[in-house]
Amino acid sequence: MGPLRHRAARRQHRGRDDRGARRIGRTCRRRSPVTRPATADHRTPLVPGVLDEHQPAQGSAAGWPLVLYFHHVHPDVRHYTALTPTSFAAGLEAVLARFTPLDPRSFGREAVPRPEEPSVLITFDDGYRDNHDIARAILRDVGVRAVFFACTGLLGQRSAHAREDYMSLTECDALVDDGHVVAAHTRTHPHLDRIDPGRVQDEALGSIEDIARRYGPAAARLFAYPYGGIPERIDLPDGTLAFGSVRSPATPWTDHPQSIRRTYLPSGHQLLWPDLIDRWHRDWKLDDGAEGSR
Ligand SMILES: [Zn+2]
User: Fold this and answer.
1) In sequence order, which residues have a C-beta less than 8 Å from that of residue 230 and are 6 or more positions away?
2) What is the mean pLDDT of residues 263-290?
3) What is the CATH number of the domain that holds 82?
4) Residue 21 falls within a domain, yes or no?
């Protein structure tokens, strides 16, 4: 463990102590010599300032692909998943040292992929222009093919503000030509869990139909919920693999193919990434005995 890792570990433990003290409150002396069991939770790298429900520490269910989501790769966008080009390249390199990248084009209509080795699927949400202008070249350098979940009703909308600047269809085509998959993320990015059921269907199915028309049925098999908000009632086509966020529990894709967990490399907390990636790797291996004792 190098010096950066030690610092990250110390910060992590301070974070836990502070949280523990808050949770315990006045009923327990702060310095009481509690011996914690070495549970997964104890070793979870907590990201300061992030709500529990948005913590990225949990990876995938054992043996199922780690799925990471990004929004922007841009020098100066501030968002919890927006990375600079340098940090995105570094994050990819660190993840790929432990996980084999999955090619999303291999997701046929029949089989749900369950890889033999720790594997990662890289995804982007919303279809921002920097995905094409900046992330594309970095992905090409490392030979990774990704899924770009695009809001089909927003494609082509341009703005001087990166958060409102979307790819054109031609730019999406260029990503597909590189071997990436462009998939559906609704038409206009509503909170699907807060709108009426009729509009849920229009937004979700409409975007899936838009993708199917341009990129065919394999691409249209993949869908991501805006904000990770999964509505109580949604009727996606049979065989759809639908991706949530860190709000979705880590379960086998075969059990819950329409609420697949994704997690992320938190922006501004790069020192925590090695511990996060270690944790995700342990999650993957948990049931094969090799690294199962933790
Ligand atoms: Zn989104």
Assistant:
1) 192, 193, 242, 244, 247, 248, 258, 259
2) 87
3) 3.20.20.370
4) no
